[in-house]
Amino acid sequence: MMERAKRGGLFVLLIVFVMLVQACSSSSEEDKSDNGTSSEATATDSASVSKELEKKSDSRGESAPATEEAAPDRSEEPTSAEGSTNGEQGNLPDAGTLTAGEWDDNAKWSTWNKLMASHEGEENRPYWRFYDFRRLEVKVKADGKPVADAAVVLTSKDGQQAWAARTNAAGVAYMFPTIFIEQGGDRKYSLTVTAGQQKKQFENVELKQGRSMDVSFDEAMRPSALVDLMLVVDTTGSMSDELRYLESELKDVVTRVSEQNNGQLDIRVSPNFYRDEHDDYVVRPFPFTRDIDKAVGQIAEQEAFGGGDFPEAVESALGNAIEGHEWSKEALARLMFVVLDAPPHHEPQVLKKLQSLTEKAAEQGIRIIPIASSGVDIATEHLMRYMAVSTGGTYLFLTDHSGVGGEHLKPAVGEYEVRALNDLMVDIITRYCRS
Fold it and tell me: What pTM, to 2 d.p., does this model score?
C-alpha cells in the first residue's frame, strides 16, 4: 500500500503539470507576463522583508496575501482549478491538496537587494559562491512587440563572454556578468542582441545596479510555438510524505495545460528523478516527449526511497537535465521545475559545477523554477533562489496550510498569496508562455 501511495502522489503532480501547459495558450492576450517587468517591490513588501531578515530562521517571513490580489479565505483549504482530478485514480489524493506560495525576485528587485545586503545574504552568497548580483535588464522588441528567445550576450574587455541569456516571452533577459566574481569585474561591456537574422551591438555598456536597456528591431518576429517542460524530482526517502501528493498535482497540471492548448503550442515534457550517490540510482532521466500519457506513466512508476544524509545529488540531476537532454534550439519557453527538500553536497567541485550549470541554463534560456518542500533550510532556499534569479526563473515554496508533510521553512520574502500548488503552477507556465 505504501508503494502505491507514493507512486500515486507523484502521478498527481504530473497531471497538474500537463494542465499547466495547456493553460499557456488558452489565456487571453490581455494577460500580461509578470516576468517581463523590473518593477520595484512595494513599500509593504520591502518593510515586510527587512523586518523578517532580522529574525532567526524559525520566524522568517510570515505567510500573507499579496497586496495586488484578493486575500484567500483562511477558513477553507485552497481548491484546485476547474479541470483538476478529483480522486479518479483510486488511491491518489485529490489534486489541489498541496498549498504553495511564489516569490519572483527579479520582479521584486529592491527587496532582493535588501536580502543580499543583510547578514543572511552576506553569509550565504560566499557559501554558495554566488557573489555579485549586479544586473543588467535587456528588453527586446521588434516592430513594437516583445521578442521571445532573442540571444543576448555580454562580452568583457578581454573579448571573453561574460554572460549570455535569452529573452523570455515578454522580451526580457537578465544579465549577471559578475555573479561568480568575488571581487572586481569589468564595469563596461560589449552587448550583442540577435533576433532571428537581425543583430545589434552596443559598446561600453556600463553595469549599474538596476539598469535597464531597450533594444528595438524593425522587422516583426514570429515566435516559436515550442514549449519545453521538464520536471526534476528528488525521490529520496525524505520526500515520501509529499511525493504521492506531488504526483497528483503534477499530473493535474500537465493534463490541464495539454487539454487547454488546442494545438496552439507544441509541448514537450520530460520527467526526471534523482536520489544520491550509492543509492540504486543517482539520476533516472526520461527524454522529452510529446506523448503526455507516456510521461504520466513514467512518473506513476516512481517511489521515494534511499538518501540517508541531508544533502542529495542535486548537481548530478541538474547536470543531466541541462547537458543530457535535447532542449529545443528555438522555443517560446523552456521551464525546469526542480522539486526538492535538500541541498547538494557542499564540496568545491560541486560548487564549481553548479556555477557552470547555472551559466549554461541561462545561455540556453532554461528557466530554473525550484519548488521547495518540507525540510528545506535557509542555505538551500538561498541557493535555489540564486539559480532562479540568474536564469530568469521564479521561486515556489510549499506551505503548512495543506497539513501535508513536515514543517515548511518560512521564506524570507514579502507578502504573498497562499494558493493550491496546481493552480499556481498552471498560472506560472501560462505567464512564461505569454507576452
Answer: 0.81
